[in-house]
Amino acid sequence: LYSKIANISLKNASSIERDRVILSKEHARLGQVCILSYLGLIKRQYLNTYMLDGGMLGHDIYNVVSKDIDALDYASGSLGHGLSVATGYAIANRLNNIYVILGDGELQEGSNWEAFLFIGHHQLKNLTVIIDKNSMQIDDWTKNIINTSSDIGKKLETFGFDVIECDGHSVDDLQNTFNIKVQKPKCIIANTVKGRELEFLHNNKKFNHFHASPLTNDEYEVALRSIV
Q: Are 198 and 225 contacting, i.e. CB atoms less than 8 angstroms apart?
């Protein structure tokens, strides 16, 4: 999104007349800010303040209005709010594209379904919804709690969306999917495997280890070898 699709750059970061990327699945914030830093949209030094009291970056950012992080469009504590915020952006500026990334676990939040109804009814075609479908949440598979993964595409088609599935691990597949022209608001279902390269986590850890448990030093070394 940041390097190939969305119109976001250092030149227009502080402008209201640019595209927006809303990360609703806030637990992926670290990945987002690392990418923004790599592209020069956030100063690298701020990464050292991640999740620290008074820091610029974290799961919940209180000083999001700072000019130093203009490219970061949204700060949230509770999940399930990003889609409604993105809907507001899409209404306020119909000349720009709004992208919102949701997790399939957070689709259990009712506010999302109110927003889906609203988007479909008003046909907000400048809004693209991306669902990271890994079928997993903190406690279990989504199918064992509230099934928000199976047949999600069929549900959203009835809400007035054009739905396209793709490989969420493939940059080329994602880019091609973003570029597909549709007649209705677009929903991209990005099929993913959480921590795909880290087989030792899949085989030995419980679900919540993916959510908030830090790696040990030994696990960190194994992880590096797995992805390099």
A: no
Locate tokens 């939040």: which residue?
Answer: 109
| pLDDT confidence band for 62 (50 / 70 / 90) | very low
Q: Do 135 and 142 meet the contact criterion of CB atoms below 8 Å apart?
A: yes
Task: Give CA 56 to chain center in angstroms.
Answer: 19
Using CB atoms within 10 A of its CB, is residue 17 exposed (0-12), middle (13-18) or buried (19+)? exposed
Q: To 10 degrees, the CA torsion angle through 147, 148, 153, 154?
A: 50
Closest CA to 56 of 28, 37, 39, 38: 37
Sheet of strand 127-133: strand arrangement:
20-23, 98-103, 127-133, 186-191, 162-167
Crossing angle of helices 82-92 and 110-122, rounded to 10°: 20
Residues paired with 102 in a beta bridge: 131
Q: Could you give the CA distance from residue 74 to residue 62 in angstroms, rounded to a whole number?
A: 10
Record the pTM.
0.91
For residue 65, count other CB atoms closer than 10 A to its CB: 9
Mean pLDDT over all residues of the chain? 88
CA 227, CA 32: separation in Å to the nearest integer? 18
d(CA 82, CA 76): 8
| Collapsed DSSP state (helix, strand, coil) of residue 132 | strand
